Amino acid sequence: MCISATAARALKSVLQGILLSFEGEKLNSMNLLLYMAPLAVVFLLPATLIMEENVVGITLALARDDSKIIWYLLFNSALAYFVNLTNFLVTKHTSALTLQVLGNAKGAVAVVVSILIFRNPVSVTGMLGYALTVFGVILYSEAKKRSK
After folding, report:
1. Which position among 1, 74, 81, 86 has the lowest Cβ density within 10 Å, counted as fewest Cβ atoms?
2. What's the CA gap between 115 and 27, in Å, rounded?
3. Using an 8 Å Cβ cutoff, are 63 and 69 in contact?
4. Domain Sugar phosphate transporter spans what residues (predicted)?
5. How far apart are the C-alpha atoms of 71 and 77, rounded to whole Å?
6. d(Cα 55, Cα 73) in Å, to the nearest integer?
């Protein structure tokens, strides 16, 4: 599942890179987001309703108990919108590969922050994996500098 999810993420990045730079019909980041968001809802909403038992009932119960949950959901939706827009802008101005490398770097940084703040334990294998990720990001950065 992890390999297929990584391959799907990479395919999405490559396709959005092609769509954002295709000479025949150039899309800007806002238009691409306009087309991709409804597709995401069509695929993710049924999966959520199937995999998350009674998610609608739980959300409604939370909203009845604390009306701030609606504001939290709206804030989370706005953040997701800006994350997607930023991803499209990064892809347009750099490349799909750069977006993937940045995503891996972000994951390594999130783990370090998690260790520092929450004192989460990390195995030796995990440390080696994160070190390899950081090393790969550094190599990619150096390769980009040399190619210019």
Report:
1. 1
2. 40
3. yes
4. 6-141
5. 10
6. 14
Spatial CB neighbours of 107, under 8 Å, sequence gap ≥ 6: 133
Map residue 53 onto helix, strand or coil. Answer: coil
- Collapse the DSSP code of 106 into the 3-class scheme (helix H, G, I; strand E, B; otherwise coil) and give the result: helix
- E strand or H helix that includes residue 93: helix 68-93
Rg (CA), the chain: 19
Question: Which amino acid, 25?
Answer: E
Which of 94, 120, 73 has the alpha carbon at shortest distance from 13? 94
Length of the chain: 148
State yes or no: pLDDT of 23 exceeds 90: no
Q: How far apart (Å, rounded) are the C-alpha atoms in residues 96 and 36?
A: 16
Tens-place pLDDT, residues 27-49: 888 999 999 999 999 999 999 99
d(CA 148, CA 140): 13
pLDDT band at residue 79, thresholds of 50, 70 and 90?
very high
Alpha-carbon separation of residue 143 from 48, 69, 93, 136 (angstroms): 40, 46, 18, 10
